[in-house]
What does this fold into?
Amino acid sequence: MARVAVYVVFSACLAAVPRVALAGPLDDLQPGEWYEVPSSHMEDVAGPNPGNGNVSCVMSCWAGGAFDPKRDRLYVTGGGHQGYAGNEIYAFDVNDLIWHRLDDPSPIASIDGTGTECPDPSLAPCSTHTYDGLEYVPPPVDRLIVAGCCLPSAYEYNLDAATWALRALPPNLGNTIGNFSATDPVSGLFFFFFHATYGGPLVAYDGTRGTWTDYGSDSWFGYYFTAAIDPVRRKLVAVGQSDPNALDVVGKVLVWDISDPNAPKIGVQPAATTGDQAPMSSNSPGFDYDPVSDKLVAWLGGSDVYALDMDAMSWEKRAATNAVMPTAPNGNGTFGRFRYVPSKNVFILVNQTNENVFFYKLARGGGTPFDGGTMGLGGSSATGAGAAPGSGAGVGGVDGSVGAGSAEAPSPASDQGDCACRLVGGRRVAARNGHRFFLGLFAIVAGFALRRRARPRALTSSRHRRVARANRSA
It folds into this structure.
């Protein structure tokens, strides 16, 4: 029985420990390193083409992306005009490192004067050049927002039901070519800038009410910007290549103070910067906020990144520390296909539908579990809210490959070194604690078993009778 007890405890703990100890390639990344996900081409899960064009246009036709920290996914969709007619949503899951198609393209109902094939606009959007107008809005809205070029309005995509909903028309709507946007993790507002008759209004969408706020117009900037929000300083920041005629903003970053969403007007404040100025002349670069380093980070191509210190208004070029080289940036812009992943403390990047996905780590440290409403920024956000576990529930895609999300994830400082057989999101420190606990428990049980074996063996009643008869015979 002692042997059985040792074996049972050993087996139970051994089964539990790998669940804690197992670390994926993203967990092993060191600051400055890139990782290429093998065999991660989006086109491998492409849906049926509903009309003209090619699915490559989902990324190559002025198309962005959005990151959902609740489900740990990067979303892409796009096409437009005669480039591609499908409006289906694709999602790259950071946990299984696989692309998933969440739905099929909507049926084509009409063709407009430019040859664009569209579904019924009351049911779903046309495939479109999204530029930088694709964003995820966190709970309680929990929707993907599409406000790309030439759409009659904004659309919300329900990620659980895989359904579209037409929303209110933005005020002063122009052609929305070269738009840029960002979701504020503090207020939950979707900030959207677009061009209208060579001017540009900044508007914000409140998904809880389905309403827009107009913050007034600024001058013409150009088509080639990408935006991100610094939630600590409450700034909407856009970087890219200005139109040479936009003299007030050439060579500067565009900054809006969004600390007061009730302000009647929020005007742009062009800001000069020091350091390496390469992002100022880049065509719609990758650009997002890193809460661990407290920097806005731009990717222009190659393995270097550029970190913007918003206090010093200074750029710093950061060279990679390993030999992995991302594929070349898409000639029509990166936009939101370079995003920060809070749960892993890395950036995700994808350039073409027939190329692999890449990850990059800037700052040392682990990730932050999704906290339910601040885009996974946790204590680094302006709200000061600490990180809390999230359910991370998954969404079934049409490929049938996306299931339930992970179980409750611990905070980075938690000690998950127990031997319970449950899946946790522990990192290597938890793995070490788990091994120590297992070894200690095994030693105790083994020692108990050996002590029992060392004791004089008690006689059973049948053996006692045999021994007694033998003694009498003697």
Residues 303 and 325 are 6 Å apart (CA to CA). Residues 1-23+427-474 form one domain.
